[in-house]
């Protein structure tokens, strides 16, 4: 039985997920909360190894179903090794991407089908879902410009997909946000960083107040 609070942060490339998760984690820790900030694919050794295989620029031959299965495998290991133990000990888990990434990227943008991709992920995650998902919505042209200007950003195989693919990813996320509106909240990520942070922080605080016994 989980007693912690599982929150995922979603959005296209360059939406500000990593930057804002760090800011949110610092703020929550300062407020005396126990927080684990992590990412997908990755977050622990086995899943980081799988991330290396999926995102290696040279792996251009990777089949779409292989890609979906590898994301689900990385997710499973990360969940059982890191996320669930943290939730079990009452922590707040801030996860940079989770199942909605697979539904938007592999299900919608790659065209594998959201329902099919959900089914393999259901096998991977069993019952564990975020209680809140914050989706940072952004025009992919803006997001890709941001990461291209940021010299330290690792450019990966998915970043190199064409703009139509990235537009489909956004479309996929918007459909998910509409369909799962009680879980997914959308924030306009084209706003200044401080405003995006403020809105995300308010959503989390509202949730934590609601969860108080
Ligand atoms: N609201 C914002 N306005 C302007 N620049 C921003 C904003 N949010 C983030 N950035 C900048 O955009 C770049 C990408 O941000 P970040 O790495 O946090 O995005 P991300 O969503 O984690 O990207 P990816 O999914 O590709 O890893 C960074 O240089 C960051 O400083
Ligand atoms: C979890 C997950 C991720 N992706 C894609 C999204 C990004 O292009 C990369 C991860 O890189 P980031 O810099 O850490 O954002 O992987 C995906 O297609 N499906 C997924 O399930």
TrEMBL record:
Keywords: ATP-binding, Kinase, Nucleotide biosynthesis, Nucleotide-binding, Transferase
One cellular component term from this protein's GO annotations in UniProt: cytosol
This enzyme's EC code(s): 2.7.4.9
Gene3D superfamilies: P-loop containing nucleotide triphosphate hydrolases
The keyword Ribonucleoprotein belongs to this UniProt entry's keyword annotation: no
Molecular function in Gene Ontology: ATP binding; dTMP kinase activity
Superkingdom of source: Bacteria
Family of the protein in this entry: Belongs to the thymidylate kinase family.
Its biological purpose: Phosphorylation of dTMP to form dTDP in both de novo and salvage pathways of dTTP synthesis.
The protein, known as: Thymidylate kinase
């Amino acid at each position: 039985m989980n007693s912690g609070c599982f929150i995922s942060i979603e959005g296209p490339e360059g939406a500000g997920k990593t930057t804002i998760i760090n800011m949110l984690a610092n703020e929550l820790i300062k407020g005396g909360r126990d927080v684990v900030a992590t990412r997908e694919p990755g977050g622990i050794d086995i899943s980081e190894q799988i991330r290396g295989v999926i995102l290696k620029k040279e792996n251009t031959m990777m089949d779409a179903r292989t890609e979906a299965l590898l994301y689900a495998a990385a997710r499973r290991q990360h969940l059982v090794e890191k996320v669930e133990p943290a939730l079990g000990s009452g922590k707040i888990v801030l996860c940079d991407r989770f199942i909605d990434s697979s539904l938007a990227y592999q299900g919608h943008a790659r065209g594998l089908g959201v329902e099919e991709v959900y089914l393999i992920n259901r096998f991977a995650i069993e019952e564990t879902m975020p209680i809140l998902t914050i989706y940072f919505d952004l025009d992919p042209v803006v997001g890709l410009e941001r990461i291209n200007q940021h010299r330290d950003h690792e450019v990966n195989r998915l970043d190199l997909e064409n703009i139509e693919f990235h537009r489909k990813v956004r479309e996929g996320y918007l459909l998910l946000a509409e369909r799962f509106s009680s879980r997914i909240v959308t924030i306009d990520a084209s706003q200044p960083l401080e405003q995006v942070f403020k809105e995300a922080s308010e959503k989390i605080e509202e949730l934590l107040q609601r969860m108080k016994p």
